[in-house]
Amino acid sequence: MKVLVIHGPNLNLLGERETDVYGQVTLAQIDELLKERSGVLGIELETFQSNHEGEIVERIHAARGPVDALIINPAAFTHYSIAIRDALAAFDAPVIEVHLSNIHAREAWRSHSVVADIAIGQISGFGPQSYVLALEAAANLDRSSGQEGL
Ligand code: DQA
Hints:
The protein is an alpha/beta fold. It has a single domain (about 1-50, about 65-100, about 110-145), classed as Dehydroquinase, class II (Rossmann fold, 3-Layer(aba) Sandwich). The protein is about 35% helix and about 15% strand. Helix 2 packs parallel to helix 5 (about 130-145) and helix 3 (about 55-65) packs parallel to helix 4. The chain binds 1,3,4-trihydroxy-5-OXO-cyclohexanecarboxylic acid.
């Protein structure tokens, strides 16, 4: 199973940026954690970070076909990018939305996600573990495929 993880804008600054909200763990450490967990779960993992909306849209387009599940933390784009929403709607496999912080427990405007209804589910508030939980959910989707009702 091939899984693509997309990290949106400013997540390259994890570990330095608003550490009271996002913690001390860097993006490289999160990617390493995901790589280790992927090995155990038998997942072929690719990770991608961009601060640019168009680059994220193009990466989602390129994932159509080869990628079996997409995990995305759209970061600030979560709240307003219809371009990313539309790209995800055109993606042909499951999408899982992830946030480090609990977006429902912060400013009111953060609790609105324009991609939430395109996603199978949203994992929000568990720090770096949000990504690990999403990876496990993706692996479970793969295992249960063809076993409708289980
Ligand atoms: C975030 C939450 C967003 O509201 C914010 O703009 C981010 C990170 C999170 O992971 O908690 O950049 O997606």
